[in-house]
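Regression report. Comparing outputs from two consecutive submissions.

Submission 1:
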Amino acid sequence: MYRSLLFALLLCAVTITATAQTKTNDAREVVNRSIAAMGGIEKLRGIKLIHSRSLGHFYFLEQSERPEGPWYVDYQKTEEWRDVENGGVRRNIGLTGIQEGRETDIVMGGVSVSDMGNGLAPNPNNIAPIDELLAMAPERILLIALDASDLRYGGTEMVQSSPSDIVEFTWKGSPVKVAINHNTNLITMTDVVRARPAEQFWGIWGDFSVKNYYSYWMLQKGGFRYPQQVDTFYNGQPLRTDTILSVEFNVEPPKQTFQISDDLRTAYTAVPKRMFPDLPLGRPDRPPIQAAPDFTIIPGNWNVTLIKQDDGIVIIEAPISSAYSAKVIAEVKRRYPTAKIKCVISTSDSFPHFGGLREYAAAGIPIYALDLNEPIIRRLLWAEYKSYPDSLEKDPSRKKVKLNIVRGRTVIGTGRNQLVLYPIRSETGERMTMIYAPQLKLLYGADLVQPLPTGGFFMPQYLTELSDAATRENLDVQQIFAIHCRPTPWKQVLAFIAESVK
């Protein structure tokens, strides 16, 4: 009798285990359970328009004092109309923080325009992020998963300390992972890995992860559930948090909510949809500057400087992209056909400032960088560029990388164009390196010298830190230049500092 009872219990346990195993290993079943938890497929397909008001904050990951935070922040109060059916978005955003004012973004029918305070104008940069937003949103991601030909079960993971079933598939050539809470069957996270080569700040990271975490799921009118908070992470770091204060579905929007005039559509069509790797070297309206013989500054949005020494060429800065650095290398070979490039110096950690280092690494050219910037530079060198392979991606061994870490005073070369590197170690210049040419009495100020179009300079604090560092190192400076500044008399900078503190 006991044997029969034990056998029956074991059989029952095996049956339950097998049923659970079948249940969790079937990706479509996992997705369908999640759809049912939201309210059912008919209600999900019935969401045509969403109107929400939210409060959130946005971190400037790309150009804060420290790459690992704390970061500069903007607070945003947003009203959003989302045309789920036709793939359109309108956002009216009130900004408080690093940026002040109002912004309006409209994306509809493959056209994107924005108003930053001077009227609506074409803004192609919003196309890719809005495309991702709509696809990864809770009202659409599960339906997209069901339609994916490669939908598969990815096992279980602990996501936000909760067990989650993982389903995976491909969307527009990009891998997507969705974490569905094992207990509630609601979406906890979406993760899509894509490249954005058209973006100024994020193009440098190749194929990077965008994760959205959904929480505070609430029962809505109509009998379905919808999350009231979204936390977005780029490359594993928190980019923004949006808490939805109110949300309504399938209401009629104001008549001109998504309207983009014919003139704006024509203007949008005329705007070059150029990716950052396609940028030409320098700018046609700014010819190269000879700061001294064989000391050439190539002006651009981010300046690059070529310096000939007796044993080769030194390059200051590797901005923008691998492709831009390839153009710099080609320009060096054009100017100095028989000279080797002995090194490149990277002086700060803002994303666009070091975005082209991979090309130098692939060519085996030594890189000089501040000790504090080593972690983020190594992250860049090991980033994946599968969608748009550069030279380093084609040689993934990374064995050629020659990273020289600057920890203190570092001398490069001899003679008239000798350079001396000094860590600045100040508050805002903590992760910057200044470069001094002793015989020329010329100082390179990294990102601390930024002239304003209206006259004067941005941020007197920056200038005082550079001045203090130059004084600390007993430098005799006559001229200053920087990644955003052409050669300028040093006394002009000192006069501005003196005037600023009056």
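Submission 2:
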Amino acid sequence: MTELVAILDARVAELEAMLAAERAARAADAEKIATLTHERDRLRASHERLRLELEMLKRRIFVAKAERVDTMQLEFEFAEKLRQLDVLAGTLSKAEEAIGADGLTLTPPGSSDEEPKRRPTGRRDPKKLPIEEERIEIPDPVFEELVEKGLAKRIDFEESCTIGYKRGGLRRIVTARVKYQVIDAKGNTSVETAPMPPRTFARSLAAPSLLAHILMLKYGMGMPLFRIEDSFTRDGCPIDRGTMCRWVEDAGATCGATVVQAMRSEALASAFCIATDATGVLVQPIRTHEKVRQPCRRGHYFVMIADSDHVLFEYTAKETSRVVRTMFEGYSGYVQADAKSVYDILFRDPTEKPPDDHEGQCIEVACWCHLRRKYFEAAFAKSAAAREGLARIARIFQLDAGWRHKPPAEIKRLRDAHLRPHAEAFFAWAAVEYEKVRHERGLLRSAFGYAVRQKDALLRVFDDGRLLLD
């Protein structure tokens, strides 16, 4: 019996130990589950945060930059909540409460059912602008003589307004044309009005003084149109930048077709020497309905300086001999340019020109600054010959600058006496140095080769005192 009790006690102790182990295992599992659950929640939160960051990045890249919110959709989503709040506040009528949430459209506080005010359209009335006024009365000389004879009389004025500029600010210019009551020989009366003086641009509110002021601010002082717009708004006379842009465009087209064209015709007809050069520019393509990315096109700006007096700019899509021939068509005289082959068509022998070439015979004058640039580039290679070339050319420029403001005849005399020996010595030295490097590729050979090939054109500056070195 004692042995049986001992066995049972041992069995109970074993079962209790197993139960304690099971409880410990369950506690460990519960702790592990809690740890895994926390890790899962942390990973889910991290995943959600990364997803939101990805959506934000996609929005920044592919969606419009403006931060717009669809408030109408928010009103629909929170209509029921807003209705409950309004009911609690006692702002809804019983009829609105009976309607319920279905079909309810709530008006946000501070808004009204009236349509928003539209932007005014039509022609602006300058008389409403808070600016000073200047009145100009325009009579008709013919009818004024009739007034003196008693055959007509002044009865009224036909007024029209423009906006001008005077030192101190904007002005409203009232043009008052006199109206006349005219009596003819038969005693009949008629009303006549003095004619309207010509305007710079038709149907434009801008007087010539305002156009000149805007052009001076934009091109003379470098102010963009939006800053000019802000300035006029502060003065009480808002003028839209789009309107000013059209005025500037019309002024440029008018000036180009009149003043600039007259300058160009006079330069080609009477200039002694025209200096020219070209630089490349990138032109953005014109946008079309086809959403295809197009590269920028390369154009060229030519500058033509006629006798240091007329400065002309001309844009061309290409820089070719045909373009140069068209630009200088009808001109015969000195042309100072670099050694590009596109200018060779201007300096051909007339007997060798095809019939379709222009009639003018031009004389080539090379530019000493382009020659100096070759040696300046070669000097970076630590070449003693390039540095010596720079020193020789600097001496030539230094001597010529001493008599720049003298009369042309005196300049030619001084050049022949003092400058020509230096120039001839330079070309003699360049010919010797070129033979040393003519078989070596590099900047030094290019510099000496340029001097040897362009010798005659570079020495042509000694033909006349009106020609310049560069």
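Expected: both submissions complete independently.
Actual: both completed, but the second showed a warning that disappeared on reload.
Relevant detail on submission 2: The first strand starts at residue 132 and ends at 138.
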